[in-house]
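User: structure tokens for this one?
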Amino acid sequence: MTKAPHRASPYLLFSLLCILVTGARLWVSQRGVTFDFESYVIVSDLVLQGLNVYEHTERYNYGPLWSLLLGTFRFLAPDPVNFHLLLVLFLTAVDIVIALQLRAISWWASYLFLLNPISLIVSGYYLQFDNLTLAIGIAAIRSHTLARRPAFVSGGIFALSLMMKHSLIFLPVCLVLYEPTRRAMTVAVVAYAGFLLSFVPYLNERSFSPIMRNVFLYQSGKNPGLVKGILEAWGFQLEAISYAFVLLIGVLAILTCIKERTPFKVFGVYCAAVFTLLPGMAAQYLVYPLMLWVQAPRNGYLLLYILLGTATLLSISPGLILFDHRFFRLAMLQIFTGAALLSFALPGNKPRKGSSDRP
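Assistant:
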């Protein structure tokens, strides 16, 4: 009698990889302290003092929920060294959660997300929490399109993602176009209402202007994005709200061209499209296109993106510099991602066998 295949083996390999990537992130975290960690210390101090973070610092550009998490971690680990360690472990756990959710596509998607150096550097060195926004976003996608939970539950999960960081701000709109139903519209309304209402406890006559300037109208000018740079070279000086419309129209145009629109594919294409069109670039945004590339590891885009992305991070990260920073640019990755998305949309483009997601 033939024995049934041992089902625990993928989980065993995954567990071993979790130990490996945790060690790797702890190691890379010792390569220096970034500007963002210094900001986390400032924000956590304000939270523990019971002060309004939007009113007392210009170095917080996100929804309220992340500041509350920082305050909680700082309460648990008052010493900056332990605080730093706790953040590394937490963000590593979030990466593991994303990998577990990517099992809905394949185990390979999980392994590739965990092992690629971009995730390692963004979470371990930069301590950026975009992975937390993405993890909650994936949970919202699964709740809305796969588990079919009540609309207010799915919308509430989307709202939590936006309360962390509003990089997925246009995703509910895209899902309404993917599934133009009353349920999808309810999810979008709940998501946006929850996000906006989360600022109410922080609103007063002194905080309103900083919230608008540092959250809703914030544009990083340190590394201008490719599309914004081109528009400015042509004489178009766009304010944040105007560029938000450009970003939304561009994302919707790209999604319209994509033929295969499964829930995970919509999420991945959205993340890659936003990355391509961002008005300002920073290291943490390199994790977004991975949400698309890990879904089709055989088409070559994933390997090329990881190679280019890793080289770029190793050329711009102060504690990790190995290459001449003048050659590798963040805008180069935007060009690559945009060209890859265009190839997805070309007439006659068909997904390779095994490249589509099961949901």
